[in-house]
Amino acid sequence: MSNQKTLNHDEVGTKFYRDVLSFFDFASQFTKHPQGLLEQIKVPNSTYEMRFPIRTDDGNYQVIQAWRVQHSQHKLPVKGGIRFAESVSADEVKALATLMTFKCALVNVPFGGAKGGVKINPKNHSERQLEAITRRYTTELVKKDFIGPSIDVPAPDYGTGAREMSWIVDTYSLLRPGINALGCVTGKPLSQHGIRGRTEATGRGVFFAVREAVNIPEDMKKLGLTAGMKDKKVIVQGFGNVGYHAALYCQEAGAIIVGIGECEGSLYDENGLDVAEVLKHRRETGSILNFKNAKNVSPANSILEYECDILIPAALENQITIENAPRIKAKIIGEGANGPVTSGAEQILLEGGKLILPDFYANAGGVTVSYLEWLKNLSRVSFGKIQRRYTENENLLMIQAIENATGVRVGEDLRQMLSKGPDERDLVNSALEEVMIKGYQDIRETYMQTPKTGSLRTAAFVSAIDKIAIAYLDAGIFP
Description:
CATH architecture of the domain at 9-192: 3-Layer(aba) Sandwich
Mean pLDDT: 92
Largest sheet: 7 strands, mixed
Low-confidence stretches: none
CATH superfamily of the domain at 9-192: Leucine Dehydrogenase, chain A, domain 1
Radius of gyration: 23 Å
């Protein structure tokens, strides 16, 4: 039995923030930037803490505590999700905002980092109350110029989704009407000019990150694995939006999903779980437990320690600690969540020869597609709308020319597949894949050039720090 102290929410958030700063401090020694510039990159630029009352359904009042942190304004607007959670704290929001800065820099998305948090449990509030909280939070941000398409662009995070983003954009548009008002937030419903592919973007990005890592034969040989996703045994902790889509795309690529973890418990089946069927079972029963031939696993977090090749923690921070790290059997950890591995646990995992794909790279799919949504809102043109029909006609002419030259007619199904022009989802997925591939190549190149960094996380921090420092210096911010 562990003697490790159980931390309260504020202590967890503080530890998370200290871990992020510790990672930064370690990585900064591998750069050549002045200490003052590193300090500017390290600390948040602005923190807005607010409290406001709402009327409860029984006629009483409740005071809501919330934050918005703008970590770095080296590029504008700043970007980061809004988290609704009872566990949220000032330091947690600072940590998440800091990671957003490095995430955007790492994958060359031209935003600074930010994050928001509202200290509530959404399950304890009616839809009316949630709408009131969201609209009041947005109003507070507008009053302080902490939101706007050229200032600060929020997005969904844990506990929020397209519904909350629709309330935000409506509130902002009423208070700050204008042609670009829709660009004040991303992750919106399609009816409010969201973008196709945003829902699955983070999970798809996690899959692309894992796939890119396992496709390098020499790296896999060091781990005792063959290259490629086929037949890799995967465990995913967290079966929300990110975890579900990461598991689904891994399965479609030929991997075997042997474990799925959730708050109510976990499942394990060495023969493989059908991801879509597990989701269907959960919708019908309210739980992933008792699924067909799978074994129920309790406590839920112990699924992290089961046998697999690839582990994807896609729930919350601080899931792999110094207490359970020695029992992690996976050879590759792809961090779908923010901060799922503590700094102490990372050292244990690295000493055990594990490969860790850092969170601010692996889960960059969300901000990448959010960037595309923001561009769509500012340009007021859907991706693919201009060129799709032209491309289809050009492809048909090419097919007809080949048919005339060969005397062989292409089948109708093949004709439709070859002639199809890209729609918005196709272009979004293509851009996301390119960003994730290029991001991993940059991290690995930095790691190979600076092997003393000791991990892909440190190499990723070094790469991001260099890009941010150059942006600061080129902008003349330090005269």
